[in-house]
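re: ur question from yesterday

yeah so i grabbed the chain u mentioned. its 238 aa long if i counted rite. heres the sequnce exactly as i have it in my notes:
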Amino acid sequence: MLLTAPVAQRPLAEAALEVGAHVVSVTDSVGEIRALLELDSEARERGLHIVLGAGFSPGLSCVLAAHAASEFDAVEEIHVAKLGTGGPACAREHHRALGDHAFEWRDGTWMRRPGGSGRELCWFPEPVGGVDCYRAALPDPLLLLPSFPGVRRVTAHLGANRRDRLTARLPMLRPPHPEGGLGALRVEVRGRQGSGRDECVLGVVDRPAMAAGAVVARADPVPRRARRTRRARGCVRR
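ran it thru and got these structure tokens back, copy pasting raw so excuse formatting
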């Protein structure tokens, strides 16, 4: 089951597990990610998968982090910055995230930080260039931490302008556009390489909705051979 609707996803995931279906979610809500992570033990007992982080960010951001980490003997820090939205629901979630508390992993503990704080000028690939980014309630650290044991710091920032930051705790002043336009990702990984330390920065520019579609298309947890078998038996319903 592919979960893309901006609704409470845990009940849908539970229903999918009960009928023996894998679950793939593209949500970028911290609350939804946490709720779905709680179903991990049930999914394992049933021999099923719950795939989270199958969108633009989290999703492609995690792919970039894994690719950059392959250059190091040990990863010490991961810093994600994102810009852009995939549509109205995504824009509303980003608005809420900027007004909520962010969680960062630092030296073995979670740190709670105010959303809209910690301004950093992050440089994305052209034509985006430099953008001010702020702390926000983004789920990337929740998904990156288990994949990199021993990492000391994991952070995530959201690109925003001054108006976005000042109005984040208020209702949206105007409806979001149907299409979010151009977005970007920047993933910085720092770590040890031999006897020294180094960093690797990777970036992507694309429409978030298009990039998320490409990621989720590759996130099917059913092996190709199993998919062919199920289709042959008429057990796959589209």
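noticed a couple things. The first strand starts at residue 2 and ends at 3. also Residues 224-238 have pLDDT under 50 and may be disordered.
anyway ttyl
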